[in-house]
Write a structure and sequence with these properties.
Elements (H helix, E strand, L loop, with lengths): L5 E5 L10 H12 L4 E5 H9 L2 H8 L5 H17 L8 H15 L9 E3 L4 E3 L7 H9 L7 H15 L4 E4 L6 H14 L5 E4 L1 H5 L1 H7 L8 E4 L3 H8 L9 E3 L24 E4 L2 E2 L10 H4 L6 E2 L5 H12 L3 E4 L6 H8 L9 E6 L8 H9 L2 E9 L3 H7 L5 H14 L2 E8 L6 H13 L6 E6 L2 E2 L27 E2 L8
Parallel strand pairs: 1-2, 1-5, 5-6, 6-7, 7-8, 9-12, 12-13, 13-14, 14-15, 15-16
Antiparallel strand pairs: 3-4, 10-11, 17-18
Amino acid sequence: MAGPDLLLIHPPAARPAEPPLGTAVLLSHLRRAGATAEAIDANLESYLYLLDGDRLAAAAGPAPATALHRAMKNVPRALSFLRSPAAGRSFPRYTTAARHLNTALSAYRGARGRERWTLGDYVHGDLSEFSPRDLSLAASGKAGTVFSGYFRDALLPRVERMRPRGVAISVNYRHQLLPAFELAGLLRRRLTGVPVYGGGGMFTSWKRSLRGMGLAFLPFDRVGFGPGESVLAAAAGGASAGGGPFFEDGEAVEFFPDFGFAPLREYLSPEPVLPVAATRGCYWRRCRFCPEAVSPVHPYRAADAGTFPALLRELSDRYGVRRFHLADNAIPVAVLRAMADGGSALRGLSWHGFARFERELLEPGFASALAASGCSMLQLGLESGSQPLLDRMRKGTRVADASKILSNLARAGIAAYVYVMLGAPGETETDAERTRSFLAAHAGEIGFLNLSILNLPREASWPGLAEGGVPPERGFQAGGPLRLYRRVPVSDGW
């Protein structure tokens, strides 16, 4: 029996809380184009495979530490709890269950004991995901990861039985890079003559560097930048792989996902959540600190805002899911208005996602209409409480507007997840104090706060900062041409 034209694989390591949207929209596009396509969420599978009791016991050895032994005993209970509605009602119990799983995962330390894997992170102590040499070691099989056993004993035999004519691996997070390169190398060695394609946001972030370096260290036949719908559909249809090792084609963009491959009840979420987006890229694209402005992963594309509520209803009816994660970089105002006007199409549904502090949210009635449409939370990038600093960032946000919007959301019952960054070039103690004062004044209206140190994309320009002349930081910013960020000079005097 012939296998699929193309097999899509979402590799570890990423949060196993919801199915991958990128894989789902590619699968949908391929099937609509007439290709036979299948998909595997190898990220979720790897967590469940390696959290198996017998495998954990083998990895932990005969005398595990008391905390590890206790966590291993609690794994079945923790998995069951995190998949139950009760997990959404008790944050302390949710945290305890997640801690048990993270402690259990610490049994997997790699061949040299220097790997760390949790529900939200993966770090290889001996290899850098930004080093071409280290990526080559993983791809060649000369160095492995904690996922080697899963790849070798579970995933590869399954792929071989499927007999795909091509395999595409999508890499969107740095935690996926080393495992994805290891997997691609294994596939190339085991599936002789089957092309392996690489794509996703990480490769697109490297576009300029990779075009100059070629494919010498890459275990892929071709690598795509930006949307891959049309090129993968052509490859699945048997088109020639001409045009060189890299492809970039954003003409076809799919917005309707196909989650038929995903075991929705197995994800670690109080109830199944489907990610969906009305846009690709960012409609603002001006923030100096944002990769979407200086080196966008996708050209901006938008679905029809007016039909978006109906799309959510169709997905809800098809998969029996009522919670949605709107995965846009920023939900456009037109989509927010369509949701507010959604009426019966959204009855019984709940949704959350990123939005900007747009002036439309100054209308109290608009916030109330969003809440009535099922909006449970908006994730909002404040970045700073200092208007001069926001202006230098080209954020396009007014601090006074943000203040009123947070009040409107709180009155409407919509939780606000606010993002703030410190360490911007030229930030003064006065700027930081303005941010602290803003957060203190609105503490009762901010449900969640994400406080971070700014990472500046290496292509970014900033007033007073030399263009491209700042050396990379060590650690995850190291790696020569593959580094993503540049060092930000520390502000003096405070």
